[in-house]
Every structure is written in C-alpha cells, then in structure tokens.
Amino acid sequence: MDNKTDLIEYLLRLGDSALIQGQRLCQWCGKAPALEEELALMNVGLDLVGQARNWLEYAAELLDDGRDADHLAFRRDERAYRNLLLVEQPNGDFAVTMLKQFLYDAWHLPVLQGLSQSSDERIAGIAAKAVKEVTYHLRRSGEWIERMGDGTEESHKRMLAAIPEVWRFTVELIAFDASEQHLCEAGITPDIASVAAQWQAKVEQIFTSATLPVPAAPNYFYLNARKGLHTEHLGILLAEMQFLPRAYPDATW
Amino acid sequence: MQPGELIASDLGARPAQPTDLAAAWAILAEVMDPEVPVVSVVDLGIVRDLDWQAGHLHVVVTPTYSGCPATEVIESDIREALELAGFKAPQLERKLTPAWTTDWISASGRERLRAYGIAPPEGSTSKRSLLGESPQVVCPQCGSAHTEVLSQFGSTACKALYRCVDCREPFDYFKCI
C-alpha cells in the first residue's frame, strides 16, 4: 500500500470510531439517568460526530471517487467500516457506557495530541480543534469512573461487572499494523507505543483511584476492525443509523 | 465545477470600494449567534478575517466546536446579512486552523454574556484551566464567587452547568477552550 491508501484507511479508523461512538451516545437520548447527564452525553456525541465529519470529509477528498462524507457514513456496509470494536459495543448500563467512553477517551486524547503535530497540516488542524473537546470528554468520563468505582456498593459492583464486558476490545488501542507504521515513519501519525503507554498510565491512574483492579493486558482477538471484521453489534447499529438515507437516497429537506 | 457556476459566481462582481470592509465589519457586528443571541459573530471571534477577492467580499469563518450544529445557521445568517446590505454573493471560507478559542471573545462580548446570565470564560486557555482544576466562576446573577459545577456539559457544547451556592440560581458557564 502507498501512503495515500494508508492515510485513507487511517482517516476512516478515526472518523468511523468517532461516528460510531457518537451514535452509541445518541441512543441514550431521552433516557439518561439525569437531565445533566443527558445533556453531557449528547454534547459529547455531538463533538464526536462533528469530528467524524472532518475526518470523513478529508478521507472522501483523498478517495476522490465521487463519494462525500455523508456517503461514507450512510452508504457503507459493515465490512467497510473501520471503527474500533470497543465503540460499537452495546451501551449496557451506565457503568458500561462510561467505561467504554473512558477507555476510548484515554486513547483518543493522546492520539489527537500526537496528530496535532502531524506533518500533514489538514490532520494537524482537525486534531488541534478536537484536542480541546476531548480534553473535556476525558475529564468527565474519568471522574465518572472514580465516582462509580469508589462509590456505593452497587456502583462498585456494576463497575466490576462492566470491565470484563469490554476489556478484551482494548487490544486494538495498543496494537498497530504495518499501515500505521508507515504513516508514523512519515511523521503523519503519532508513535503507537507512546500512545499505548499514555493510555495504560491513564487507565492505571483512574482505576487505582476508583478502587478498581487493572486487568492484565488484553490478548489478541480474532476479530479485527482494521480489516472490517466486526462484532455482530455493528450491523444492527448501522441498520438503524443508515435507514433513512438508504430508504430515501439523496433526499433533501 | 457545476454548470452555471461560473456565471453565478461572476454575478455582481465589482472592484472593492475603500469603505467596503469597514461596512461589512459593521454589518457582521449585528449578526447574532443563534444560540446566544446577545453576542455577535464578531464578538465571539467566529469571523476571523474579511478581504476582497475576485470582485467579491471574502469572509473567513472559524467554527467554535467541531460538531457545533449552529455552524451552518451562522454561515447562512452571515451570507444573508451581507447580501441584504448589498454585498453580492459573498464568498465564505471555513477555516479550522488555528482552532477557535474562547480567548477570542471580545471584552464587550464577555460583558454581554454576563448581562445575559451566562458566566463568561475565566482565564485564558494558555493557563491550566483546560486540564486542571475547575476555574473559579462568578455567578452572573448575584456576583458571588461561591459557585459549584453541576455538569461539565450544559445546554450547548460550549457551556457547562453551574449553580450559585449563595443565591441558589443555576447558570450556564461559557467553557474555556
């Protein structure tokens, strides 16, 4: 693969992950545990969908095959999606939702901080903007993990139950493939080992203060979002998200 | 290029007049943010630059948040106000870099936010306010510094929700980013 193909793949990973995480958060709309949480969940989702649009617009320009960001979001099938397996997992209870958010945010922030130094100016610009937003996301999700982990007997129990639900999917946050290696060597993307170390340190810090055990490093998982091999949950999510644009292609209102 | 675009883009093209840019700034100072209708797009620092390019006014706009749903509305409001004032087919450019920051909100914009009941951003983003402890936010109703954060995310992406411990009023705080 050349650098352009690698870059398109990478932009889809970033954009799809933000979009699917945003869509999952939208599923809380109207049924969050409190009004303040409802607003927060929707605001974080909104930031992520906005970031997804920026990444997918750039991917569409590089693809240069007539598709735009909307087309990429609403007309691609599950196998063409490149989002992290973590973000497509069902919301579960509030503990699972916030744990997914925290594990994603703790990875997202160092990735974006690295990308804001990218040799690709377009990437650096989008990332510099997103860093400001994700700083707030991580602060909030980290506080929730501490509050629930070190909270009541019930909230602690829920957090303990949430960890094994999603932990195995974090393997994708700390592993990298040849395509990312090329981009990193070209100065376009940050060093994955450094991102992984920052992610690990943040997780250990928050889990420790939340009185939660830090599980052992996740093992290789047979599914691989980088190759479009997803869990069964993504298809159902896409069916809902893509229904309208697929049923009424090119509709305007 | 779409059919007809060349013709449309040339429509109303004219050389710049010496007063054009000042007039355009004055018009934009009256275009209010749709979600905070007391501060203008100039006060908020959303309009970054104006100049004259190829016979048309060229407006550089920087959105506040990546997912700000008001971005399209703001751009269409800007376009409409300028066209009503006689600027034909103004060219809008959306620019992400440098990223928008609350440091760009003008002093008068901050005062108007406060008068409207929204606490303006405290401090500057170069300080630790982004990463560290919550900043001390003054209640826009009674002026007390005795306030607490209810939620880092308020009624819009750019605001957090606070409560005044003295007058008990909840209020929005324009987050420092």
TrEMBL record, chain B:
Residues 125-175 form the PaaD zinc beta ribbon domain. It comes from the Bacteria. SUPFAM superfamilies: Fe-S cluster assembly (FSCA) domain-like (SSF117916). Residues 23-83 form the MIP18 family-like domain. It holds the Pfam family FeS_assembly_P. NCBIfam families: PA_CoA_Oxy4. This is 1,2-phenylacetyl-CoA epoxidase subunit PaaD. The gene is paaD.
